[in-house]
Write a sequence for this structure.
């Protein structure tokens, strides 16, 4: 990671809403701003040259659902190590969830998070809590947190369980012009829920969380959003019926958006059996069935699912190296998201390159009301450089996160992020 205010990108193929990555250009960056686009540009004195032949460039990737763990759980991750993992995964901006200690439930904590990331190449956008202390009893200071830089509100890790509190929160969030992001889970139906409830859980003798536990809460939130006119964002959707509920609501004009994690359009609950209770396959929502995976892909293809995220959730080694039922939920995902997306979405033709890039650049920023970077002269340089063909293997030595709880260790991928440029810093992934 170095400050590189002046950079000449050679032979790179832009991908945006108006460019499909078929034409190569040169892009000159001076003092962090795109100064010139053209062909056969010559380097100026003191300008670093990066030959990107065969690679693409897009607006910097944005992950709208990560857990940076700081403050309070720095043994799992810090803002610095989380941003390092984000950069290695091709992300220039992330939105971090508030289930920290203390939670991101007041303006001072919002500002603390932003200040900790100020000098890093990855921009961090805090998400404030809906309720004080994430206890679901009374509203947090939502307007004050927005003034401090919060981009949405969520009690993530827990749903806003009280329907009346959610209704009031939606009214306030609507006035502030920001979305409510809910962890969609009815505890009465889901707990203790160590994995998806179905045939595999029955064979393994594990108590499961049924799909309906997610779907009941989604249905409630869609009805409340329809009533209040508020923007509800369904976090990490994972079931076929959940996607259908969102699809139906969008047709009715409900202000709803949703996201899906890379692992939920790739892995199934059978991984737990195949890997002999590997705790790196334990997350919430849980890995579900092959039919649910198919529904996630269908939802991405038809636009029902707006964005791709990771739900990057680091845990210390000793926390995951326990019996399956005692392990915490969550996996890291920033560094493997693109590889999974290329394999599961791009190569089979479910999404073309423009459509896939939109899911991790434009869509999350529009949901959170964050400006979308432009690849044009005079615009601040916020860019991701990436490939779709290079083969690589995800090994422990390459992990930039402080934790290594990934189901993708030693898996080979095709397609990788090459570098990011943001905030006058040029960071190569070195893969």
């Amino acid at each position: 990671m170095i400050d590189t205010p002046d950079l000449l990108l050679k032979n790179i193929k832009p991908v945006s809403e108006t460019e499909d990555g078929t034409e190569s250009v040169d892009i000159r960056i001076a003092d962090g701003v795109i100064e010139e686009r053209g062909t056969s540009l010559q380097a100026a004195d003191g300008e670093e040259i990066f030959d990107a032949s065969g690679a693409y460039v897009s607006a910097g990737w944005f992950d709208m659902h990560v857990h940076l763990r700081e403050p309070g759980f720095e043994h799992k991750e810090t803002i610095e190590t989380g941003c390092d993992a984000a950069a290695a995964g091709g992300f220039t901006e992330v939105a971090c969830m508030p289930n920290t200690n203390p939670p991101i439930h007041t303006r001072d904590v919002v500002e603390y998070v932003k200040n900790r990331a100020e000098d890093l190449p990855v921009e961090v956008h805090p998400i404030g809590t809906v309720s004080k202390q994430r206890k679901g009893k009374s509203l947090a200071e939502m307007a004050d947190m927005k003034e401090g830089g919060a981009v949405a509100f969520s009690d993530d890790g827990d749903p806003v369980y009280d329907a009346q509190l959610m209704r009031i929160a939606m009214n306030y969030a609507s006035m502030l012009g920001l979305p409510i992001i809910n962890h969609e889970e009815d505890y009465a139906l889901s707990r203790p829920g160590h994995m998806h409830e179905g045939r595999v859980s029955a064979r393994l003798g594990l108590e499961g969380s049924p799909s309906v536990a997610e779907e009941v809460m989604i249905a409630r939130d869609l009805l409340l959003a329809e009533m209040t006119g508020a923007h509800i964002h369904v976090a990490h959707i994972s079931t076929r019926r959940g996607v259908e509920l969102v699809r139906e609501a969008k047709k009715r004009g409900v202000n709803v958006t949703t996201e899906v994690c890379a692992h939920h359009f790739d892995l199934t609950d059978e991984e737990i059996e195949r890997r002999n209770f590997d705790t790196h396959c334990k997350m919430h929502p849980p890995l579900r069935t092959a039919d649910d995976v198919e529904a996630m892909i269908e939802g991405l293809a038809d636009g029902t699912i707006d964005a791709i995220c990771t739900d990057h959730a680091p845990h210390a080694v000793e926390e995951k190296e326990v019996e399956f039922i005692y392990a915490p939920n969550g996996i890291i995902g920033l560094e493997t998201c693109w590889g999974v997306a290329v394999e599961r979405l791009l190569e089979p033709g479910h999404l073309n390159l423009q459509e896939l890039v939109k899911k991790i650049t434009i869509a999350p920023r529009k949901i959170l009301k964050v400006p979308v970077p432009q690849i044009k002269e005079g615009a601040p340089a916020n860019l991701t450089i990436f490939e779709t063909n290079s083969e690589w293997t995800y090994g422990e030595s390459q992990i930039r996160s402080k934790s290594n709880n990934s189901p993708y260790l030693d898996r080979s991928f095709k397609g990788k992020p090459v570098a990011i440029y943001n905030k006058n810093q040029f960071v190569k992934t070195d893969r």
Observations:
- The radius of gyration is 21 Å.
- Residues 211-228 form the longest helix (18 residues).
- The longest strand covers residues 7-14.
- The chain has a mean pLDDT of 97.
